[in-house]
Specification:
alpha+beta; L-fuculose-1-phosphate Aldolase; 9-stranded mixed β-sheet; 9 strands; 16% strand; elongated; binds zinc ion
């Protein structure tokens, strides 16, 4: 069991290092959560109660007794590899899903990420809509996607179609599109709820003037979604900086991709003209 938890730690170390290397995680930006599989979560040697119960802003009944590996507030993702136990922790929710306590980590004395509400709401929704398959949530400040929210008037249909049109891979990787959420206070319940609503249908949420949140069945899957969307946003910005964009994937080409890969892209995005 210890080996399995160590493997999970090595995965969060790699993910956080990659996020930093890509320029997505300045200072204490970015946060990661992973719902632990039962065979890892029940490791009684590693996980012991290390704090009192702390009330959450809201209850998450379908996350009752679940255990999460989650980054600490104020911690720098680039420092996780130096000391995982200082910068990340494992928390468990009580049997009502309304309180949490620390089981491992946060040895620097920190608390869970200030985006804990967004992470738990995201985890709760994705656990429900995927029958428990989705376990990972990543939020980060990917610069190309964030830049688009300043440069363009966006909504869910427009950002989704733009990304599909600017990189062949996008409709294959996220045929349901990207949800756009207008600016809201970071860490607020309002932002958590708008994000959760988007996650009913989609796995990638773009927060205006802020960054992105993505979910997946593991850290690689969530990271890959962000990486793909971020690359397409970068291609758009590079192309636009070279002059007016003359060519992009047509709706017919997107439809051909959907047929080739047996996808069911959101038709409202496919029919959007930008
Ligand atoms: Zn942020």
């Amino acid at each position: 069991m210890q080996d399995s938890f160590e493997k999970i730690i090595s995965e969060i170390v790699k993910t956080s290092r990659d996020m930093w290397s890509k320029g997505w995680a300045e200072a204490n930006a970015g946060n990661i959560s992973l719902r632990l599989r039962p065979e890892i979560a029940q490791d009684k040697t590693t996980f012991q109660p290390r704090s009192d119960w702390v009330a959450l802003d809201m209850k998450f009944p379908n996350l009752a007794k679940e255990r999460f590996l989650i980054t600490g507030t104020g911690m720098y993702l680039r420092n996780i590899e130096i000391s995982p136990a200082n910068n990340v922790g494992v928390i468990e929710l009580d049997d009502s899903g309304g309180q949490y306590r620390l089981l491992w980590g946060y040895e620097s004395g920190c608390d869970p990420t200030s985006e804990l509400s967004s992470h738990l709401e995201a985890q709760a929704v994705r656990k429900r809509v995927t029958d428990g398959t989705d376990r990972a949530v990543i939020h980060t400040h990917s610069p190309n996607l964030t830049a688009l929210t300043y440069a363009l008037d966006l909504d869910t249909l427009r950002i989704s179609k733009l990304l599909w049109e600017m990189h062949t891979e996008c409709i294959i990787i996220f045929p349901e599109g990207v949800e756009f959420v207008p600016w809201m206070l970071p860490g607020s319940l309002e932002l958590a709820e708008a994000t959760a609503k988007g996650l009913e249908k989609r796995r990638v949420i773009l927060w205006q003037f802020h960054g992105i949140l993505a979910t997946g069945n593991n850290l690689d899957a969530a990271f890959g979604l962000i990486d793909t969307a971020e690359k397409a946003a970068g291609i758009y910005l590079k192309a636009a900086s070279a002059g007016p964009i003359s060519n992009k994937l047509s709706t017919e080409q997107l439809q051909a991709l959907a047929r080739r890969f047996a996808l069911k892209p959101d038709p409202s995005i496919l029919n959007t003209r930008i």
